[in-house]
Amino acid sequence: MKLGRPFKTLTFSQYLVFIPRHELYSDWNTLGLYRSIIEHPNLTLEEKIKVRDSAHTFFQKQFDFLQLKDPLTYMAIVLLGQQPTKADELQLWEEVRKNQQKILTEKRIKHRNFGTYSLHDCGVEGCVYSGMMVRQGSILCETKIRFDSDKSQVSGIIKSERIKKERKNRRQIIDEELQD
């Protein structure tokens, strides 16, 4: 059986009926559910919070993975109904970054090309590449998952250039000594 309609068209009572019976619907989309909670125009804040709590009882594991897949939606759901300070937001982002690293190591995932990180999003309106899937590290890639433990690629390039210069200088010194 299919749900057959967007989540944004559901009423509050329909959310509460469909969420416990999610296994019956072949077109169920958990990410779409969480995004619709944020974007639904007809739900009040209290109803959004109740729908979020109902969804958490069934989809807590998927919600935790949302930190890696779509961190902006995760943050919006976590901060639903709150007025956080800038320091609170920064602290929450730091927790998300730590959890992302933890999820990647637990699942032994070596690449970081996930969800919103795999799409081109330069912020330019009308960009022809907007929404296109891109490979991590390519020219079109705008967003990257970064951790404090990551090695800087720039320092490796600088080191190789320095070693190359030293090798050339050493050869020049040897050639000069042989000529004398």
Fill in the keyword field for this structure.
180 residues, mainly alpha, 6 helices, 54% helix, 0% strand, elongated
Termini separation comes to: 89 Å
Number of helices: 6
Shape descriptor: elongated
Helix and strand composition category: mainly alpha
Give the number of DSSP strands: 0
Residue windows where pLDDT falls under 50 for at least 5 positions: none
Mean pLDDT: 81
Radius of gyration: 24 Å
Q: Can you write the helix and strand succession as a string? A: HHHHHH
Helix content: 40-55%
Percentage of residues in DSSP E strands: under 5%
Q: Main β-sheet: number of strands, strand sense, barrel status? A: none
Question: Can you describe what's shown?
Answer:
This protein has six helices and no strands. With 180 residues, the protein is mainly alpha-helical. It starts with 11 loop residues before the first helix and ends with a helix. The model has no long low-confidence stretch (mean pLDDT 81).
Task: Explain briefly what this protein structure is.
The chain has 180 residues and is mainly α. It has 6 helices and no strands.
SSE arrangement:
Elements: H1 12-18, H2 30-39, H3 45-69, H4 71-78, H5 86-106, H6 153-179
